[in-house]
Every structure is written in C-alpha cells, then in structure tokens.
Amino acid sequence: MKDFFSKKGIFIAAAALLVAVAAAITVAVTGGHAGFASLLSEPFFKPVKSAMTSLVGSLERTYDYMYRYDEIEAENERLRARIAELEREYREYQEISEENARLRELLGFAARYEDLAMEPVSVIAWTASNFSSSFTVSKGSSAGIELYDPVVTENGYLVGQVTSVTSASCVVTTVVDTSMRVGALIYESGETGVLSGDYDLFKAGQLKLSYLGEESGLVIGGTVVTSGSGGVYPAGLVIGKVSGIAVGSSGLDPYAIVEPSADISDVTHLYVITDFSVNE
Amino acid sequence: MENTKRRAAVKILILGPYLILLYILQSTVFTHIELFGAKPMLLPIAAAGMALFGGRIQGGVFGLFAGMLTDLSCNQPTVEFTLILTFSGLLIGVLSDTALVQGFPSFLLTAAAELAVCSAFQVVIPVVLRNAPPAVLAGIALRQCGSSLVFAIPFYYISRFLSRVISR
How far is the C-alpha of A9 from the C-alpha of B122, rounded, in Å? Predict the structure, then answer.
C-alpha cells in the first residue's frame, strides 16, 4: 500500500489529474457540450451503441408485441366482426335498394291500374322439363291466389298464368309455353290476334301472334299487349314487342314473332293479379 | 324375418335420402344447367342404375318414387314418368336377374333405353294431342337424352355402391 501511494498512486493520481485537466480544457473549448471522454470514446462506441440501440429497440418491440399480443388479437377480432357487420349491412342495403326499385316500378304500374289486387311472390323452383316452361312460386290459395290468375313483373309485363294451386304454392306456366293462349293486340295499330307458345320458337323464348288480318300492318317493334277479351287477363298488360314477321306453312297465315318484355328465364320476384275489374 | 325387416329399414334409410337429394338437385341446380341445349334428367338414370344392381323389386319401388318425383319436378299433373319409371324399373330388374351382366355397358344401355322411352312419351303425347311438329320435339328429346347420359359414369358408381351397401 505504501508502495502504491509512493509510486503507482502518484502515477494514477497524476493520470487522473491529467484527464481532469484535459476534460476541463475540452469542456472549455466545446463550450460545455461534450466532455473529453465522450470525444475520445465516440468514434469507437458509436457503431456499437447504434447496433445495441437498434437491438434493444427490436427487443422492445418484440416484447411489446408479445406483451400486447392478446390485446392486438382482440382488436383484430373486433375489426373482423365489424367488417362482417358492415358487409351484412351492405348486403341488406343492396337488397332494400333493389326492393325499393321494384316497388317504385310497381307503384308506377299500380297507378295505371287502380283496380288491380296483387300478391307479391318469389320463384322457388323451375320446371325440370325440356318441353315446357313453368315455375313454382312461394304462395298459394291461402294467399288468395286462384287458378288462371295472371302473373306479372313489377313493371306490369305479363309473365304467365297460374295453372296449378296448392295452399302454400302454385305453378305458373309462362307465356312462352306451348299450352298458353292469350288474347292480344298490337298497341300501335289496334290489330288483334291470339298469342301462343310455339315449339319452333319455344327454345328461343319467343311467342307467336297469329290469327291476324291480311292487312294487319305489322310493324317490327310494335308493342303487344293483352286485349282483355275473355276476362282472364286485364286489358293493356304489356307482353312484348314484335321482333319479326313470318308466314305459316300454308302461305296464307301471317304471324308475328313476339319477344317478351319480361326476361322470363331470369324472373325472381313477381306479382300475381288476384283481382281486377273487367271492362268489356 | 327380423333380418328382412332390418334390410327393408336400411333400404329406406339409404334410398329415401338419396331420392330426396336427387329430387332437390333435379329441381334446383339442374334446372339452370343446360348441356347440348337441354336440361339433364337425373332421376331416370338413377332409377335404371338401382334396377340393374338391385333387381326387379328394388327397381320397381325405386322407379315408382323416382317417377313421382320426376313428374313433380316437371310441374306436370300427369303421371307419365311414374308409370314409365316403375315399369322400366321392373323390366330392367328382371333382365338384370336373368340376362344382363351388371357392368357399365349394361347400365349405359338400360339408362339410354329408359331415357329414350321417357323422351318418346314426351314427344308422342303433344304430337298426337296438340299436333306439335314431331321433328322439333325429336330434336329436344335427343338433346335431353344426350345431356342426361353425360352423368352415366357417376351414376353407375353411385348405384353400384349403394346397392352393395344395401345388400350387405
């Protein structure tokens, strides 16, 4: 100990004093912003410190992630539920929007025919037959639907007629079916005829308007509507437009090819006319 | 006696849901699918398969219910499919018990014959009663047979599998 203070001690004390003096000079030179030690150590330790800081930062983030995992997962779950809820609301909105559009169309149609009583129905199944065109709808006699009631779209386009009824459902045979006969007239010319399904036109989804006069004045694009004769259909329901004119095999019986206005193969929501007044 | 009852119960438990499934497919999914311009008829093919692999009783009973469901899926009040599929089921069953080998060629032949008979009735009735053009209807009938026979391979394996399960 004696030696330490006598030799090494004096040396260390001198070194310490030297460092202190150097530090004091450095502080004085840098205006007190950096010490001597830091100036000396900075070039060596800066990369190490940077690396360490970066590592610690990563560890902190990992720790935070681990620590907050449950919280993040719960938040994720909440967001997923929210997205699902918003998607559901969007689907509902779309359905309501479509229904609204249908009802607006129906309102316009119903305003033209104040005397009609209608029952909304949905298509639940199409026929499996390749030789007929019919479908089953969601309501039957318990909703006031009767045999031979006409069926229309929201725009009032004629789709078909009820041909079989049970209490909970009914079968609608469409106008393109070969068993159908509808009294019709061409709106523009007033020419009357009988609209029927035809085996040649059936697959193309078209109809045949026959029993027309020779001077029928058929015009492509003419609107074909129900004549109301017979009292089965209300007068003036739009069936379709004349898309072509042809002559039967005898060469003496001209007929019109009619394209239905309703997209019959794609109907989903329809209206059964359960009552209307007949003005004959 | 107990064994016979158990077998009958197993048949009902297996073939009942099978028929209902076929009916649902026939009247929902396959009314929107057209192959060669015609909707396939599944129930007649299934009936041919069950008759070939199960014999006349199974063929007749399965044909009866398959026919009723086909009439129902076609929205027709008549019972033409009920009659056709019942009698063809019995006939195929008898042929299977006596003459036919229970392989794919026999199945294809019987299924095609059954579809041809069904289609022939669908053509003849409107031609006779409503003076419909036979050529147009024959075209539809041919397309119907073709689109239905596309499903012959899956129905061959399904019918064979179900009949084996039932007969165990």
Answer: 122
Q: Are residues A46 and A159 both part of a single domain? A: no
Interface residue B137 vs chain A (CB under 8 A)? yes
Chain A contact for B77 (CB, 8 A cutoff):
yes
ipTM above 0.90, yes or no: no
Same-domain pairing of A34 and A155:
no
Q: Given A130, A164, A200, which is nearest B133 (Cβ)?
A: A200
Contacts of A171 in chain B (CB under 8 A): 75
Tokens of A99: 């229904």
A128–B140 CB contact, under 8 Å: no
The string of pLDDT tens digits covering residues A146-160 is 999 999 988 889 999
Structural domain span for residue A12: 2-67
pTM, full prediction: 0.69
Bridge-based pairing state of the strands A192-197 and A117-126: unpaired
What is the number of structural domains in chain B?
1
B96 to chain A, any CB pair closer than 8 A? The answer is: no
Number of domains into which chain A is organized: 2
Q: Indicate if A259 and A121 belong to the same structural domain.
A: yes
